[in-house]
Specification:
single chain, mainly alpha, 10 helices
Amino acid sequence: MKASPQLRGAGLAWQSRFVFFAAAAAVAVALLYLAAGLASGGYDKRPGAPIGQSLGIGAAVAMLLTFLYLPARRSAALSSGKPRVQFLHTLIGIAGVALALAHSRGRLMHPPALVLLAALGLMLTGVYGRVASPKRLAGAFGRAAIPYRPSAGGSSATRSIESLVRAKEARLARLDPRAREARFVLRTHHWVRRPLASFRYLMLARRERRTIASMPAAAAGEVEMLERTWRWLHIALAWLLLLGLVAHVVTTLFFAGYVAGGGQIYWWHFRR
């Protein structure tokens, strides 16, 4: 039995509030840990010491797990459970940022701090997209929010869209013959089985969206810049985080001597 729209809306609202408080609590706990470490002299507080390195490993694992959301969100098998997958993705990401903050010991004058800053930016944009953005978009697209603007029939943009739709239908006939263009969504199995055909279809779909957005009847102008850009900023920060995380892990574990700069290598590593 499917839940009613009211119940689904209430569940999503509860999850949004939980995400906000979870992010605030995670950062608060990490800051309390840092403050307690500064006040206590009972253990080695350095990032590469046993406790600090364990926190770093936990942060790296959590952040890498969040990237599983990319194939999961496009999986046909998980499409009905996408809100739960998204909720789990958000919580794991928040936990990873908190662990990274604790691991860093607040050292912001070293290169690994760039990874931490990317993680913090990723968390902020993710929480914004989960908590604040839906409410702001509801105001833009709610009832009577957008005035009626008739499209210019027969315009070059309209003819271009018709041509793109026909091209998409022809491409889709080879990619997924049973699918209908109007309701088709690229899934993970399409990318696995037909990566080149999937990429070509994606390019056509993006051209179609850009053409629609350029039409006078489009409602893109009703959406504020922040709502149009936060997701792309979130994605850019995610890839920066991944590159920085891989570089940090590889250098500290396999090039420990270079990282130490002639000083003591006090952390667990594979080779100097």
